[in-house]
Amino acid sequence: MLICPLFFSFFLTSFVESVDQKPNILFIVADDLGWNDVSFHGSQQIPTPNIDRLAREGTILNNYYVLPLCTPSRAALLTGRYPIRYGLQHSAIGAAQRSGLPLHEKIIPQYLNQLNYTSHALGKWQLGFFNERYTPTFRGFETFYGHYSGKTDYFTHQNEDGSDGWIGLDWHFDVNGELSSVPEDFGQYSTHLLTSRACSLISGHDYSQSPLFLYVAYNAVHTANPGDPLQAPTETVLQFHHIWNTGRRKFAAMVTELDRGVGEIVGALEATGKRENTFILFTTDNGGPTNGFDENWANNWPLRAGKGYFYEGGIRGTAFVNFPAQFGARAGQVSTDLIHICDWLPTVVEAAGGDVETLNGLDGMSMFGTLAGERSSPRHEFLVNVNPSANSAGVRMGKFKLLKNPEDKFSEGHDDWFEAPGRSAHINATIKPHSTPSQVNCGPVPYELNMNCHSRVRSQHLCLYDIENDPCEFHNLVDDDEYQEVLKKLLALMRLYEEEQVPYINPHMDPQASPSLHNNTWVPWTDSIVIPKH
């Protein structure tokens, strides 16, 4: 069969132009980063010049929401669906649990690969690995470099988990379903390793063959193992000698290393000439764990509480987008459009040229037109979460948010408002953020404040907040006559989600997972793909 050279040349040219027109997509996910841990939100303690530059040249998202814990949030990000749809609404997946994102759930790389993308994942997974089919390279990613579980030591890459304090290496390099551990990286700081791998993928990719989807899920600034939870190179920690609180000092150093990594990744994009046509999303997975919670010293001031809570400090995410080729009209803006983490799947599918009308069963909505400045957000409500084990739930509709049973589950009292520990050990000072366009301002915490969510009228533990006018959640409106119709609508929406949820997945720790049985390494340990009922 003869092929006309002119036709072949036209076909090849059209293919290259099609590939070049599709944007590269870069997701940078920070772990446990708080609202007041970046200087574009006003932090005076932790300079984040690279993150700030990217944020200010893009669009800062000030009305953007995540889930309060890592596994549910990552699952929502990658599936475009609320965790109540597939049983991951309860908690984070433990390393020794036979648990994971159900295999019937389709995730972002699987959609993008159908649009001729090449997909790579780095960093933290925490969506299950008890069977190899739950690991990233069986779910659309060509390669994975990082750790399967929720945390790891930043230098030894070992994770301590399980009821008996099992410890083992959790650092892997997987390629097209071939799984391997990487003990030779021992002693190297994980943030540096992930940054180096990301830069190598960017500089080494053949963009004439396919656009790139790169999912960089740093473990920074999550704590490592108990006993040595906050880790950074000594020379970086010494830069923050003025911060009297040891935990906050080390945390600041961890954020600094994260910021440097972001700068290096963007530098790699610029060096390849692909910066202009790359859709960059930077997001935290949940609010920061504050005031020593989980041995961490993130800060969400002035928002209330943090990681694990349905209050704003736990779910209002630090995030921005930067995409000069398509979102340039909104560059430098602070967006108050309502956006949820499950909106990213349909958004990037549309950005990649896919047909969002064919996406079925999603809770996410495409924000492409919104971020391009063509329309306001199509989202008017979202589910905060439902946790049936605590009989707690939360929903947002318009400017109002309703919470049920959100009380502090921890004896330490982490549902409060916490300023960042300050510079002087002598006066125990705290540091308040300086003013920026994206900073939330609420004024001082009222002297007399009822922190408990309780309705005298309904005899239920409920809180109703006007988030637009009271983002710090000082004033519970649940018994105010003016808001009873609003309350009825929110209660109906909450009941709807509670009825729609599937049973949550939370199996017991499996003794067969112990690294001592697998060469002191955390690896898939069973041939069964079945997730047992808890």
Keywords, please?
534 residues, 12 helices, single chain, 9-stranded mixed sheet, globular, 23% helix, alpha/beta, 4-stranded antiparallel sheet
Topology:
Blueprint: H1 5-21, E1 24-30, H2 49-57, E2 59-61, E3 64-65, H3 70-79, H4 108-113, E4 118-124, E5 143-147, E6 158-161, E7 166-169, E8 172-175, H5 190-204, E9 212-217, H6 234-237, H7 246-272, E10 278-284, H8 312-315, E11 319-322, H9 324-327, E12 333-335, E13 339-340, H10 344-351, H11 368-371, E14 381-387, E15 392-397, E16 400-404, E17 420-421, E18 430-431, E19 462-466, H12 484-500
Parallel strand pairs: 1-9, 1-10, 2-12, 3-13, 4-5, 4-9
Antiparallel strand pairs: 2-11, 5-8, 6-7, 10-11, 14-15, 15-16, 16-19, 17-18
Helix pairs in contact: 5-7
Report a brief summary of the structure.
This protein has about 525 residues and is α/β, with parallel strands linked by helices. Helix content is about 25%, strand content about 15%. Helix 5 packs parallel to helix 7 (about 245-270).
